[in-house]
Structures are given as C-alpha cells and as structure tokens.
Fold these 2 entries.
Entry 1:
Amino acid sequence: MSNNVLFAGSPWSAFSGPNLGYVMEQYDLFLQSPEQVEPELVALFQQFGSPFTEGEQGGAEGASYQPGNLKKVFAAVQLAEAIRSQGHLAADVYPLKDRQLDTSRIDLASYDLTEADLVSLPASLFFNNVPVNVTNGKQAIDYLRSIYTGKIAYEYSHVDDAERRWIQDKIESGKSKISLTNEEKKALLERLTRVEDFEKFIHKTFVGQKRFSIEGLDTLVVLLDEIVKAADKEKMNYLQIGMAHRGRLNVLTHVVNKPYDMMFADFAHVPNDYFFPEDGSLEISKGWTGDVKYHMGATHTKKSGMKVKLAYNPSHLEVVSPIITGSTRAAQEDTTKPGLPSQDASKALAVLVHGDAAFAGEGIVQETFNYANTSGFSTGGSIHIISNNMIGFTTEHTDSRSTHYTTDLAKGYGIPVIHVNADDPEAVVQVAHLSFEYRQLFGKDILIDLIGYRRFGHNETDDPTVTNPLTYKIVTSHPTVRAMYGEQLAKEGVVSEEQVKKLDEEIYAEMQASYDHVKAVGAEKGHFEIEMPEAVKNDYPEVETAVSKEELVQINEDLLAWPESFEPQNKLAKILKKRVEALDTGKIDWGHAETLAFATILRDGNPIRMTGQDAQRGTFSQRHLVLHDKNNGSEYTPLHHISGSKASFAVYNSPLTEAAIVGYEYGYNLENEKALSIWEAQFGDFANMAQVMFDNFISAARSKWGQKSGLVLLLPNAIEGQGPEHSSARLERYLQLSAENNWIVANCSNAGNYYHLLRRQAKMLGTEAIRPLVVVSPKSLLRHPLAAATLEQLSEGKFEEVIEQPGLGTNPKKVERILLASGKVTIDLADRVQDGKGFENTHIVRVEQLYPFPSQKISDIIAKFPNVKEIVWVQEEPKNQGPWKYVLEYLLDLADGKKIKYVGRPEMSSTSEGDMDSHKIAQAKVIDEALA
C-alpha cells in the first residue's frame, strides 16, 4: 500500500472475534519477522500501527458486516486511497466534456468489491471524524467520490504530511465548502454578466481588433476577485498580479478597476488620460513609444488602502512571473534599518496567471518554482493560476507536452494542485478561498488549474476551425457560463429569467454610454503625443560622489572589526587585514573599493540588495561580503555593522538561474526605487540566458511603459585564455540595444572609477533621471596594481567618463596617433607603455563609459593634439563583436579628416581562442599592432 495519502481512520475497527485475534497474532509476527507476514498486512501495520490499541471492535451500528474477510477490508482501504489520490482522473472538470475520463482506478470491480462488501464495513474505517449521514462503507465511498470526482479535483498526495492532513481534513470535513447567500449569488451573476458583456461589446463595436478575449475562462475574474477580497480582509498592503495577454483587458477592467471609458478610449485611439478616476484610485504609467493595449498594466488602490497591481508584460508569456515575485518581496521588506531587511510575508501576495501551454513549455516557470522557498527569494507563497483553455495557439495538448496535465511540473516541488471546472463559478469561489487559506497557513505556493476553453481563435481575427475543427464544433454550441449560471439561479428561485435578461441589457447599455462619452470627448479634445521626459533626454547631472578620508578610514576599520568570538579562515583573514594598509599604499583593489562604496551608500540611506551565483564571495574570490567562521561555519556580514548606516544590506547567492533571477531583481528594483539592486553574472556571457529580460524589460520598459529602473548589472568580461564561454560579456548586444538614454553601459579600467560609478548610480535612485547601469566588470583587473585606487581618488575624485593615460601626451605637438580603448585592454596597453618613454607620438584614452558615448569629452582631448593623423580603436574582442561596430559611427564624426583604424582580433564566429597559448599569441599581436 502506498503511504502517499494519510488516512484519518483505522482499519482495526472492522475486526472482532477470531478475525481480530488473527490480526493480533500477525502483528506479533510482524514485530519479530515482518518478511513472514503478507505484504498487505505489513502495509496496514506500517500505516496504522498496532491493533491492540484500537478501542472499537466491531462494525458501525447498523452494518451487516460478518467478521472474517481481511482482503475485503484491505481492498476497501485501497479503493478509498485511490479515490483520494486518483479521483482527479475521473473528475468533471472539463467544460466541453471532450476529454475521456479514467474511472478504472476507482471502480469497485478493480478491487474485487461489491456494494454489499462495502455496506458491511464501518464508516470509521475511512474517516477519523465520520461525516454526518455516513454510516457504512458504501456511503463513505460514495461520499469520497462526490468530493473527489466533482467539479473540483485535487492532487495533494505528493505534499508534506502536515499539509496533506490539513488539505484532506478541509475537503472531507466540508470545511472548504462555500455557501453563498442569495445576494452573493446575484453579485456573482452580475460579475459574470459584466465580464461577458465587456467582450461582446468590444467584439461588436471594434470589429477586427485584437483583444485576446477571456471568453471560455470568464471565471478567471471571479477567481481573482475572491483572492483580492481575501487578501483585503487580511489587511494586506499589496496584491500583485502577473499574466500574459489572454483575458488581460478584462482583468484590467474588472479586477484592477480601469474604467470602461479608459479602456474603450484605448480601442478608439483617444488618449485615456481624459478619463482618469477623479479620486486618484488608479495609477498607470506610459512611455513615449507606447505598447499594445493588452501589454499594459495599472495599479488600483482600494478604499482600504490595499493596492492591486497588474504588471506590464510583453508577449513573452511567463517571463513576468519572476518580476512579480521580486516586486512582491520588495513590498514585504522593511529596508530602513541596518542589517538584513526584515520581511513580513503577510504584507503582500503574488498571484501568477499562466497559460496552459506556456506553463509546461517555458523553462522560466521551473526557475520560479525552484527559488520559491530559498532565503533570498521567498515571498511566503505565491498563488499560481493556469488560465487553461486546453490549447496552445493552434497546438493540441498532445503536441505541446509529455505529461497528462500541464500542471505536473509543480508536483515535483511539493505544490498542491487543484483543478476546477471554469463553468462552475461557485466551485471557483470555493477554490479561491481554500488556496488563499493554504498560502497563509503554510507560506508556500499553491496551483489552481482553471480549466475552460477558448471561444475564438488565438485572437479574434483567427479562424480556429482550420486547425481544430472538432473542438470548435463543441465550442460553438456550448453556452456561456453567464447563461448557465443565470439559468441555474432562475431554477433556484434566486432571480427570474426576466431579471437575468434585464441585467444583461442594463450592463450593455452602461458600456454603450461609456463609449458614447469617449467619442464625444475625443471629438472635442483630440489627440496628443507623449514626449520623452527632459530628465531622460539629458545625461546624468553632476553629483557629488567623493567621501572624506576620515569617513573612509572609519568605515574601513568597521569592516575589519570582527567579534572576538568570530574567527575567519586564516588565509582570508590575512588578505582582508591588508586592507588597512591599502589605504596608505594606494593599493585599494576592486573588491575593496566596491565594499567601501557599498558602505558609504548605506550611510547615505540607500538599501542595497545584491544577488548572483557566487555574489557573497565573488566568482573570483575577490569580494567576501559574508565571512564564515572556520570553527563552526557561522556567518558574519561586516556591512551590517557600519557606524552611521541608515539602511539594510542583503547579498544572496542565487540558484543557478539567470533569466528568473535577473527578472526578480528587476521587479524588486521597480517596487523599491531607493534600493541599489545589483545582479552579477558568474561570467558575463551567462547573461545570455536572461536575454529576454534585457530586450523586453530592462532596456525598453521606460520607453514602452514609463517604468523607471535603476538596476545594476555586473557582467565579468575579458579575453584571458579561459576559452570562449568565459571570455566575453557580449558587450555588443547591450550597445546595440542602447538608445534614447535608456541605460548606461560602462567598462571601467580602475577600481576608483568603479567606486564613483556605483555611488553616482545610488545618488540617482528615486529620481526621474534614473536608468539601469550595465557594468562590464573585470576578472584579472580585480587585483591588478595598475587598476588599483588610491584613498585620494575615493575622497576627492568623481566618475570619469574618459581617462587619459598618465605619462603620455606630455608633448602635444609630437602626438600623431590617439588610441581609444575600453576596459581591460587599456591596462594591457598601460603595462606596455609604462612611463611613456619611447611612445611620444602616441596617446591613449580610456573610454570608461561607452553609452552614452562621451563624444564631446573625446573631441576636447583630440583638440589638444594639433598633429594627430590617426585615431585607432583598440579592443581585444573579435572585429564583429565588442564595441567596434558601435563606436565607428561616433569616430567618423570625431575624425575631421583623420584616418580611423581598427586594431583587434579579426572577425570570428566564437568569442575567443580556446586555449591559453593561442590566446597569448593573439593578445600580444593586438598590443604590438596598437603600439607599433
């Protein structure tokens, strides 16, 4: 017998007389030699324990059970277990009834049982607390069938014991049942009427326009409504929803309360700004390029103060899931005090709506589940909803996945799954409340599979009968959920048929009036364009990033003042202690400068959150933000103990996941705009796995949706003989995406400049000018003496977009060549030229900020050298990669008749050579040619 389901009752109550004696003898034998006992009895003893402690001896009152058939008892227990664990396969959860149900696992014949056998068994065999009106085994089995094969189906045999017992008790005791009053039923009918009429009105009024309608899954709005109500009752501050385009407009309208006239204005190409609610309850942001209406989001503030937010999301389906969970985590945290932020999961809830084909097909779903219970990324449980229309674009389920259900992935993470028939609104209400209660109690994810259909094609201009003719024969004759529920309430006497019809007419007329208003306003006021904000058009303003020597010395002391009881690893302790003298010797390395920057930012009052696969130590063992006691493994974070700190600091080693973690940090940053949020790739080109986040959100969200982000991306980059996949951050991709001051792309060659870059970014947080920061971070430069900073540089300097090579260009008239380069290759050049002797005809300019390109600063430098004949761009990346193609256009503008030359590797399909010897030869050739 499987132990997947814990039974509340005990089988021993079914035995008396000689049969109970036989069972007791077998139990004694089980304790001595279990291999001599029948397997069926072994399973019962293992699950239910000793029969000697059982108080009851005999069947339930009125049962005609005759003692003597152990196999019948065992079979009945197996049947009950099968109903609980496999009943979902026979459940009435498919509205179109186009899926063959499997009843074979719960048929009496499969267990060699008859109804008479079951009648003879006591109900207490199946339940700990026997339901009312259940007196024998047959009634017990019938009761279980009614629960587990109805409009709601449950899969929970894979979850932990405590959760399993709780779910089973809630279901079988009837505690999860929802009894709606007549007024609540009327309100539910009105809601369904609004949902349906909204789609009908758009379909008729805006013929041929895409809306990706909710029809066939109308009760998604009901489901979300109930979750919102439950969250509001619990006095949550935030409920954040992530979903793709299917049904999005209806959710925006009826869950997030975007008024009808605002929505119809979007279809009529009238600015919806004219129709904002006067009470200020709705917030939307807009970009200057805009986006299609079914990608837009909004935030509604309820009268209680709770904010209900639907996130902006492109057509990339599941990618919004980590963004919403990150945003929810930020809403749960208090980051205003030193140390780790304090998290209260009761403040905010993430609700993630998935498509059925995308849920099974998109790997980011698995990534999101994988981090759900980790310390750095948990949110106290998300409620997942599969908006299941049983088809993916045109693809049937047999072609889109290898599992029985689209939900099966979640079971591997111990997540309960509830399937519910979308045509039963009262069942949907019940599932909403059960799921919310589970999340609140256990702090874990739960998954609702809302099974419906799609009334039209993928969009409303698509003819689905071309590819799915059989399905759409059923769909076209299938009544809507509103019609069925109206008919149900009429039969119950809650409303009359005339009232159902009148409600439909009144709501439709209300929508028509809203549209008439939109047309009138549009004709009167006309259209206007949204322009890029001035703060975005301009470069970052000059801000003070220097910190006094005295403050830096104090911070340095705080960073190295470990408790007496704490003993770090010997080698590491010596390395860190050298940071005392580094301030005097001018050898502040990259990790040291970064930590000092973090400390000063915390003292300024900005919280910091940093994640990455090795973020605490640093991929190259350069950071060491979290120290480990060598004796007991306890952790100590020096940045939690900085005198004068006014904000929290958190650094988490993330799962081996790029896409979801980048999305999570982006979402966190959107919600907490004062936090310096940083994601670091283990190696720069590992960020390839998160490309969708860069393309659709980080680089473009401001122009599309008006969303501000100050996320920092650290992408280790340098061609150093470690092979292609550990060489390039694919810098060219970020430069290709650069436009409209959408972000800053920097490739620093000096630890001090990096220090000021971070501080500048933190200073801009929360302002209109903020934008993401892409930092091509180093590897070998982390400890290179020529990349080290001095205390004076930190205390007196600022971020320099360009740096002239010291020792060169001292005689301007002799300079005939200017080399421009960025990042690590500039240090290779500096190492070769040393003090500049022998290179009087050459000057080197380090381009520390690539975007926005510092053309004017470079032009001013070139102007100082009247005899320059040649401008050379030097890079270590292949010619078809790196910055070359990007900078060429700027160089042509700067040249003013001077020759432009490229020095670097030739065009390559790979990013670098595959071994150290080949690398050294190729790298030397680049440097030799540049300085020839």
Entry 2:
Amino acid sequence: MKQISTLIAYDLRIQLRERGNIALLLVALLLAGFGLFEGTRFDHHQRQAIAAAQAQETQARSEANSLAQRYFADPGAAEFKSLQWFRTAIDVRGYAFREHVGFAAKPQTAGSALAVGQADLLPAYVRVRAESMQSASTTVEIEHPARLSAGRFDLGFFIVYLWPLILLALCTSVLTQDRESHRLRALQLQGVRHGSMLAAQVMARTLGASALLLVFGTAASLLVGAVEPDAAGLSALAIWSGIVLLYSVFWGAVTIAICAACDNRMMAAFAGFGVWLALAVMLPAAFTAAIQLAAPVPERERYVRAMRDAGDRLPAGLQRLDRAVALEGQMAGVESVFQQARSRRQQLFDQTLVFSPVTLVYESMAAIAGNDNERHQRFMADVQQHQLRLRGYFQSALQMAALGDAKHHCPATCLGGYGFLDFDGVPRFTASAAMRVSPQAPPQLAALALWITALLMLAAVLLAKKRRRTTR
C-alpha cells in the first residue's frame, strides 16, 4: 500500500510538471466556464420571457378592467361608438374567445442553468385559451430549425461529451508508457502489481482532474449567479457534483480497460478515441433508433386528417365552447392512440436507458436541472387541468349572460346581460406542488456503478491474459 501511495504521489508530481497537461486542463476549464456562461444566459432569457408573459397577463387584465369601468359608467361615450362586442373585453363573449390573455409558466428550478437539456425545444410557458388545449399542446420553441438541430453548448454538453476526451488524454499513458520504457519488470520486482498500479494511477489522475473541475464549476456557478447560494441551490450543486464524479469514475474505468489491453501510448490513444466515439456517439444513436423502431408513433398527418374529419362531422349551430367540447369528444380515440404510443416509447426508453451510459448521464443532468421531458409532461398535465377550469368558468359565465340578455333585451352590451366585470374571478394558472419540488437524480443512475464494475473486471481479465502471454 505504501508503494502504491508513493507511486501515486510521484505520478501526480510528474503530471503537474507537464506543460501539456496543464494547458489541457486550462482549456477544459475555459470550455466549462463558457458552457456555464451559455447555460446561465439561456436560463436568464427563459426567466425574463416568463416574467414578460406574466406582466403581459397582468397588464391585459388591468386594461380590460379599466375599459369596462369606463364603458359601464358611460356607454354612450365617443370612444365606444365603433365598439364591436366580439373584439372587446367588456363583453364576456369577446373576452372569452379573443381578448382574454392567460399564460401558464413552468416553475424554474434552482439548478436550471447547469444543463439546458430539452428546454430549447420545450417552451417554458404557454398561452392557455378557454376553447381548447391546441394553443398550449402544439407550442414549441420558435427558432431556426438548424439552430435547434445543432443544440446549445452548455455545461451539460461539456461534461457529457468533451470531459471524457480530457480524461482519456490525461490517463491513457498509465502503464502503456511503462511498457514502452520497460519499467514494468523493475516495478514488478519491487512487489508492485500491474493491476493495482494501473487502477490507482488512473483513478488518482481522474479524481484529481474531476476535483479541479468541480471546485471551478461550483465557484463559478455561485459567482455568476447561475445557482443561488441557498438550500435548494446548494443541493442542486451537490447532486450535480455527484453525477460528474460518478461519470468521471466511469470514464476512468474505461481508461483502465484500454490501458490494460494496449501495448503503447499511440495504440491507447487511438483505442480511447474509438471507444469514446462508440460510447458517446454511436451507441446513443443506435439506442434512439432502436427505441423508435420498437415503439413507433403514428404520423402527425394522421392526427391532422382525423381532426379535419371530426370537424366536418360536428353539427352546425354549436356555440364555440360547445363545439370545442364536441370536437375533443370526437378526437378522444385518436388522442388515446397517440398518447399510448408516446407512453410506450417513453416507458421503453426508461427501461433500457441503463444500456447507454452517456444517454443516462445526459438525462440525469437534464432531470436535476428540471429541463427533462418527464417534468414537462407533468407541467402540461397541470396546464390541462387549468384549461378545464378556465373553460368551465367561461361556460358558466356565458350561460348566465345569455339568460340575462334574454331577460333584459339590452340593445348593446350591458350589465345583467353579456357585460363582464369579473376579471379578477377568472382562474389563473397555479403549478401543482409536485412541480415545485426540487428534482432529484433518476434511480437508473445507479446502473453506472454496474458499468464501472464490469469494466474493472474486464481490465482484470485483459491484464491476466497479457501476463500469461508474456510469461510463456
């Protein structure tokens, strides 16, 4: 044990004297800092957009209330001469179907800047109308498709895809360099086992570099305001640090297996890049393709045709809200087919996620940032419940207004008829308690420990085979 500790200390001092290693770590920290800056900028933009939408809703409600107060105080004023009931907030019909402005915003989490995840595709807020969920369920981020397909460079992207390359570059010289310099025999005569030396040196380099990254990332996150220094923010940073550390150890185990199999540094470098390409690019792509083939989702054109046919089958003369309810009833079967297909695909994805370590870590980082698909679906379920409450409110208001108008026979919009003043009574969106709970890492992340164990066992087998080959 003392010999291993001495070798680790000596190896780390040698690495610190290497200018190339220092330059590589500095570049890594610069990339991590840039990724954190981009993630923070995107998160700040999201929060500003949510605040602007909420301010627009409040302002629209205030202006509608002010207009109604002026109108009902003096309906014959000059400013109301050309007023059209279906384009004004003073009439419940115009307010319900045109002038009502209501938004539902997804609560942002404490660690939302640590990984963009799917937040650049799934909107942070949606507009909710009384008629139907179409305006909310079909809302997507309005941006150039090329930008969306390229994704965003953020701290999560750096950790998942670039940090493994840094670790491979730092660690693939362990044991392979000793084989080239013929030092292994001398170390073996001193009682140093190849496997112990390989695992100790690789993990020492990996954990040392990871500790530097975690200290830099934590300090930078707190300094630039990406994470607030409160309980929720520090908890998010702690979970993020644990994921990064576990992911680094995984790639350390990959490096141990590579160094156990390769005879020199050049071979280890090429093998490391090949393994990175297979694990970080090819395996996730094959994983996604297999999921899509195993659990296909019907074409969108089928949904559009079904909606057109359902609209044609509706009887004439229905009120707008009644028509929307009838249309949803006609589309219930098609909606169920699409929802079941999406659920099957998501269920299969969750069940097989452990077979792609890179995808698993990416999804874990998106989950702790609150920018994953599962949390967005919970948000949309809250939006649907709010939309049903909003529709129910306006249905009741329209029915009461129609009865009052038939009784009073108002020549223009009037109170007691279709006149509307209860703007503060219109339901507003409130997220459920589950949406306000700080997200945690998914339980599938524990499978990464099994990957590490399997890779270390593979490295032991490779070293044993190489030892038997050299002793012959």
